[in-house]
């Protein structure tokens, strides 16, 4: 109804600023480029933006190594650009959410520099997770835990103590048991809320508190208490009190790679509003896998009372077109696992065509799931993963720390193609060279080309988002599975009573969503086909049926 907070069923568009649009021609995207192209995002029909970090950073981890939480990296502009972005976005009806990185900062952050310079036991060191080592001279790290980016998670300081980093050695973890840390993050939250941001995506939100007393683990994985009694929740209650101090409905989404049970424990009504559930990103293109992932998202929602949150792409994962085209399933762990599984594509064009067909069907599914939806820039263009980046240009620490064993995440971060037949494809001024080279295949996938092609991925996303907006049952309905050929077809009904529909949106009603991951066509239920991944006219022909690798929504 009219009182439903906006974020419960919003569509968020994730902007990776370095790769969105480059206004000043230095090869890297910037906030001015984003402002200049806001109309393209608004025209897509989304409700909000999520910007990945744009703060001053040495950019070892794409900006998730923050050197100053309340400023803008000069490569992206300055605080004036943030004001201009907020004003322009709000004028276009878009909310703006930003990334908060509380688990770790950059080793270039003033606090860490001070900690390195200070003595063991000093208040400067207390802000980080610094410990004495084990064994003779403390030469052994305090635990055997490994870092997410491979290698050890402890690095030695010049005086012999060790500091903990869940990710790269240049990303020291903050000590949330030291009151200075939550206090500083309250200041940071207020700074951005005062600027007018509408919400936050909280990076690695489940890992702020570690249990070092647990000591070594059999597989070297860290011990991170996430349960109901973890001090974590005190921190999020504080975040929430700060956010509730502000007018309007500011929101936060927890980022976590955790399984559903843990995600549900993490979310509480007096804490953060949403949590990512990345199950869909891990499902391969098969009805049972997709059904299980949807179930998982719904279970989190049932257990927590928060809306489900649906994602198929982000800046950490191979693009959906490539995953589905190759039949790749993402292992729960991290990027390296994916790389092992990626088969050599027999025929790149065939893989692209198949992946695109499936990604179109996945788009229909995504936009017909009740709850909040996150899209990643370029997903609406059907961009494939760029798999052949030369080693010299790769930046991701996942690539570098594994000695190249894992290709890392650069392939989904290649600057967007906007227009023209050759690089930089309108990403920056003619003659500029994007920080990652764009592949030839981008020539066929520019936004400009797709604007004029009713059969394009862009046209499909626009249509889907318009239908979603006009059809409350797709955003807020209750989902029930319908029987069918479960191995190859995903069929569910969404229902919504009149009260659940928003003011002026008419009665609730019902819809049936059919996703065919098999090869045999399936009959559609009677009704009006309002959206499909294939031309709707084909489905309306006498005897029309939904072909393989396709999806439709029937009212
Ligand atoms: O912690 C994990 C597995 O143990 C991951 O799934 C984790 O949730 C994920 O790696 C978090 O990613 C985010 O933080 C990283 C950054 O490199 C990613 O780009 C960001 O999305 C470190 O800040």
Q: If you had to describe this structure to a student in words, what would you say it looks like?
A:
30% of the residues lie in helices and 13% in strands. The protein has 555 residues and is of the alpha/beta class. The chain folds into three domains: 6-105 and 200-459, TIM Barrel (Alpha-Beta Barrel), CATH 3.20.20; 110-164, Oligo-1,6-glucosidase, domain 2; 477-554, Sandwich (Immunoglobulin-like), CATH 2.60.40. The strands form three sheets. Strands 9-8-7-3-2-1-11-10 form an eight-stranded parallel sheet. The protein has a five-stranded antiparallel sheet with strand order 12-13-14-16-15. A three-stranded antiparallel sheet has the order 4-6-5, with no helix packed on it. The longest helix has 20 residues, at 348-367. 51% of the residues are buried. The model is unreliable at 332-339 (pLDDT under 50). Residues 61-62, 64, 101, 148, 167, 203-204, 256-257, 315-316, 334 line the site of 6-O-alpha-D-glucopyranosyl-D-fructose.
Name its key features:
555 residues, alpha/beta, TIM Barrel, Oligo-1,6-glucosidase, domain 2, Immunoglobulin-like, 8-stranded parallel beta sheet, 5-stranded antiparallel beta sheet, 18 helices, binds 6-O-alpha-D-glucopyranosyl-D-fructose
List the helices and strands and how they pair.
Layout (H helix, E strand, L loop, with lengths): L10 E5 L15 H6 L1 H7 L3 E4 L27 H13 L3 E6 L9 H8 L5 H4 L3 E2 L22 E3 L5 E3 L15 H16 L3 E4 L29 H13 L6 E4 L5 H7 L7 E2 L3 H4 L4 H18 L4 E3 L8 H7 L8 H7 L6 H20 L4 E5 L20 H5 L45 H5 L5 H14 L1 H5 L1 E4 L7 E8 L12 E8 L12 E4 L3 H5 L9 E5 L1
Helix pairs in contact: 6-7, 8-10, 11-13, 13-16
This protein binds 6-O-alpha-D-glucopyranosyl-D-fructose.
The site of 6-O-alpha-D-glucopyranosyl-D-fructose has 13 residues, from loops.
